[in-house]
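Hi D.,

Good news: the full-assembly prediction came through. Inputs first.
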Amino acid sequence: MKRTVALSISILGLAGAAFAQEKISFVRDVMPILNKTGCTSGPCHGAAKGKNGFKLSLRGYDPEFDYRALVHDLAGRRFNRTDPASSLMLLKPTQQLAHGGGLRFEPDSRYYKTILQWIAEGTEFGDPVPAQVTKLAVEPAGVTMEKPGGKRQIQVTAHFADGATRDVTREAIYSSSTPTIADINDTGVISSDRKGETAMLVRYEGQLAVVDVTVLPEKPGFLWQPMVENGYIDRFINAKLERVRILPSEPATDAEFMRRVSYDLIGVPPSSEEVREFLADKTETKLKRSRLIDRLMARPEFVNHWAVKWSDLLQVNRNRLGDKGMWAFREWIRDAIRSNRPYDEMVRELVTARGSTFQNPPANFFRFTRDPKVAMETTTQLFLGVRMVCAQCHDHPFERWTQNQYFQLSAFFAGVGIKDGTDGNEEIVFEKREDNEIKHPKDGRIMSPKFLFGGEKLAPREAELRESLAEWLTSPNNELFAKAMANRMWSYFFGRGIIEPVDDIRASNPPSNPELLDALTKDFLASGFDLRRLIRTIVNSKTYQLSFRPNEWNEDDEINFSHAQPRRLSAEQLFDGIHLATGTKPYFKEVPRNSLAQEFPDPVVGLGGFLDVFGRPERQTSCECERRSDMSLVQALNLLNGSTIADAIADEQGRVARLILSGANDRQIVEELYLATLNRTPDGRELDQAQTYLGSGMNRAERAQDLLWALLNSNGFLFNR
Amino acid sequence: MIRPMLLMLVAAATLAGAAPAIRDLSPHGAQRGSTFTLYLRGEGLLPGTEIQSTLPASFSRMTRSKDPLAESNTSMQPNSVLPFLVSLRKDAAPGLYPIRVTGPEGISNVLLFSVGDLPEVEEVEAENFKERNDTAGQAQKIGVPATVNGTLTAADVDSYLFTAKAGQKLVFEVEARRAGSAIDPAIQIFEASGKELARNNDARGLDVDCRLEVTFPKTGEYRVQVYDAKYSEQTPNFYRLKIGSYAYAAGLFPLGWRRGETVEVSLLGGNLPQPEKLQLSTDAKAEFLPVRLSSSPMLPLLFALSDRTEMLEPAAGGPVALREDVVVNGRIGKPAEVDRYTMPVEPGQNWIFEVTANSLGTSELDGVLTVYDAKGEKLGFADDGNGADPVLPFTVPEDVREIAVAVEDLLGRGGDLYGYRLLARKGRADFIVELATPFVNVPAGGTVPVVVNVQRRGYEGAVKLSIPNLPEGFVAAGGHVPPEAAAQRFNDNNKGRTRERSVITITAEPDVKQQALELTVIGEAQTPDGVMRREAIGPGMTVPVRGVKEKAFTAPWLGMQLPMATTSPLPVTLLAGSPLVRVSQGFEYALSYQVKRGAGAGAAGTVNQQVAGGVSNLRILKGENRKAADSGSFLVNTNFATPTTTFDMVLETQTQVDGKQVTITSPVVTFEVVPGYRVHLESAVAELVPGGTVEIAGTVHRELTFEGGEVQIRVEDLPENVACPEVRVPAGERQFKLACEAAAGAKPGEFEVRIASVAPDTGRKSKAEYKIPDVNAKLVVSGAKQAAR
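Then the structure:
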């Protein structure tokens, strides 16, 4: 066992020139070692209950707590100040004494020497203010590798509050968002494995940095051919595709576009007549499509369709809001969509709502959030795309948010009171006059409200706290606000966000096309938070109008929007699509006759039926992930054998019955059924096959039903592509 | 399952025997001055039945030929229809009027009839369900002005097409809940293109009913759509859609005044360009007076009457003096306004401050009351007490001789429609009594229940309900409301509950003479300040509304208490074994019952029991069922933690009488839970000298139902150098003597001691010992002089 107490020049050298003459400090020198060697990690002493009686804060978010645990717990037995090398803190990680966590560093390592010196010098905490890391600088900021298999070293520099800097490449902690594309080792060396894009997360003492890594394909013969551009979206998409050597697909056909944009804008497919008319229209494509977009956005189904999305996010559900509250909140949402209420105004109304949940429907926002912490988490996740939930128990592991910030932001909602109203299960949201503060769970401190970032002033009166929060939240200076919505809106048309998941925006989850997201954000801001304009801009882009058919250069691209991604129709789209295609009208006693599924106010209508099988959310959370878009065996069986399709195709008033009764010939029937389901005319082969089938037996109506059944079960119907 | 049972009890009042019941009126309203046929549909509407109504009209009974709804798809299929030719007076004031029928088999429930001033139109779909008017394409054409009588079933939507001129203003108002319909109506107005022009769900001053005024942009066809705001299935489900150009108010000020005086009242808000003032004479017995807007078909607003001195909040600013028992009629005139009142008080005084506003239906105020001392320190605060209106019981702390009482709106709102009535009165706490049963028909020789709610306003003790004007030939039983501490707690949700239910049964002697009268129910409570007596308010009528937390519609403004009538005897009665049971804490009582059936009575169903109000630590099991289903017993189990209180139990069953289902109720059985034994001392003071002895003598009184034997008695909290050895009082003995001895060194003085007792073996299987609360006594150790004397 080495008993070196004297200060070693080599140790000082490691510490960096700026600190050469200073004593070893816990907060500046020792904590990074505990973090780097995994002592503070979740499986080790950072676990909720610690390990073997020794508890450290998770990932070292609370150095004061860790210092107390090390220095004062067990009456200081972790240190032997007269013989520092005999300290438990050195004997355990070097496995000179049995250690469940195994060997963390060798006795002759730099880490050992630093800790040894720190003990010898008296285990000082150090001055936390100058030792605070204010920024991490990583060189290079982005890495592009010409082909898989390459390696690249990065260098990490920590900037401290007192202006000092230190190379912390070896102390920083690294992880890759997609290790199968490229990974990074403990010393900051990136090694690529296959083509693609990923990001390296670099952490050091509460600060984060991200290095984007692009590994280009090795395939020779790539010749860049941009898509025709219609605005800035296409410009930024072209730029990115060219950089990563991906060719965009061909434009979608008119029929493909019409079906896609109809489902995306109004949630229902075009009628046979509308398809025929659109295909026959000889107007120049760009103008023709733009006009169709305008027509669709003026339809009442536009309001229905977007109200479903907002109702999902705002958890419109009678089990939470009561019948009347649910209907009132839904109408408020529909009004906002119908009148294209600016997004910031909508959010302000929600966050500052008070009064009756019946008379002032946005007050229902607090009926489903209730607790101040839940209200805060919902607000940040919904409107900033930030998930704060981790920070309730500890500083956020993959972001800059701290536990203090969690409670400071929750404090804006601490005064929200909810009481019963006088009309049925009405509730009244009000500002409490007592018990209107929130305490830090660690030490019981009353937490003052404070914004997550930015320096806006608070309103002087408690009752106006939420007004202040709304002001900050929706401010044009709060870039996350507009960015989160721009990203979320983009995802509705492409099946994924530029940042994905859309409600998990963080440094370690970078956008696939930051320039595009910035441009969309700026445009959205400049428009005065005009959601319809944002939608119109997206669907008018050539990028949105690309075919779903890939080419040899983009077939495995999933993040750069080089081709349309086929998306399974949502539960409501599928249900309405089936009934519109079959010409039937299902009846549900909770809603007026002839209502479409997109008009259902909540999941209670048709509960446990087709819509739930196909992923309609229960509206228990504000996460987009609650709506499922997967495919399952139950769904397949339902489509093949379930009563929804079977009853609809055989309906006595349905499309097949009406076609047969009208005396339509086989060709007319086939064309009509293709138009009603796939929203296109059949090609020659399809027409021949279908006509042959219809004419090959006695029961023509049943054969027509078979054809309709087959079309409804085809990918062309089940997917929006 | 307390509530369903009690709801059944409410219904039982109207179902007993062949008493008349009105299920529906057709039409529900009419234009004043018109003559029309009014169809009453229901049960027991026999030819001899008479209408009882305040409707300014003449009624001529007619012979039924064909019910116009006989072929409709109405879900209600009454077994009798009674037509009357009604001529409404031309000067009949618009409003709601009660209609009840009386006959040889008693009185019916009340339904409301609406008098309007616009031509009446019937919804075609209501008359023929195949004539749909659900969509724009199916809309029914109507002329305006009009009142459309329609119905809404679940997710039904009713559309009406009308023509309006450019610039024309029309008011659209739906009368539904206010008139006793269970639906919650909403309206939308559309242009012919389908564009929505206006919408309303709940309008100010109309409860859940709706109203809006639209100025039409151009001449043409428009559509008004009526639907239930929750698309819920309700009964009754009628509405009256009024369309016309008329003035309406949304509120009034002041909200009330002293009975018998004349006061200037302003009708406010709505579409009135300025308040309409009128001199109101308040010479009426009722709690409310209807106030009407001149030349308007709007329903009247309700003006509260009191028997106290009333004053208006002074117009000038600054604190106003608040006087005891004087109602201040004030108003939060603008947002964020706080009205302050000062009042001299004495430390230790008990006051109750109450604001009445929102509960009257004529104010928007969600009031908050705060009491401050002269330094501005907050001493008390109240939000909701009586609905949204605050009630604040307040004890004046030490050193406080002046307080300020502040009234404001919880949400910081204010305006013309934010009136209130503030009252300061002396008292510790209060309660109010509300009848849940609107009326009763008592069969000769039979029993009916009367359900009563007691709302606690700070008072937590027992309440005894009674019917002081019950005539000869009738007996009332029950009406015990156990103290709050005895209440059953299912979970934290009903902790500190403010509303308790109780039942009084009225039993008629078999030969009671036929009669109809109005009963009064009072609640009495013993308080340190004397007996507190409160008279019950009757609901007038009760219409259940389906839905979570939905309250039944009632019309207390009708000013009815408890109308009662007699009916023919029923051939079946339900009797309990004993009307009064005294049971020892920890022991069981078997309560027997018997259903007595005569000719025409079918077999009785299951006999159920219910403890009114709910008592903690009480378990009731079904006892032995004899072979005949008409008799059996319930085992009432108490334990040592069952509170010593008095509670009521009612038994009921259902049976068929002449093919009709009736609910039979037993007279209330009153249970007194008492301690198993009591310890009485001959004297509460025992005196001895140092070195002397004294005997503390007493007796142990065991309850007959107490099966425990020996009782051990000892003295606790004895002073030093005084000993009183424990004594044992064996089973069969009552007397005891505790021999106390003071040593020479015992210090003189008066000492509070406790006579503790325990019965170690109660004869129960659990072998748990039984204790009763200790008895307080005083032990005096005298000095030498005192001893000599």
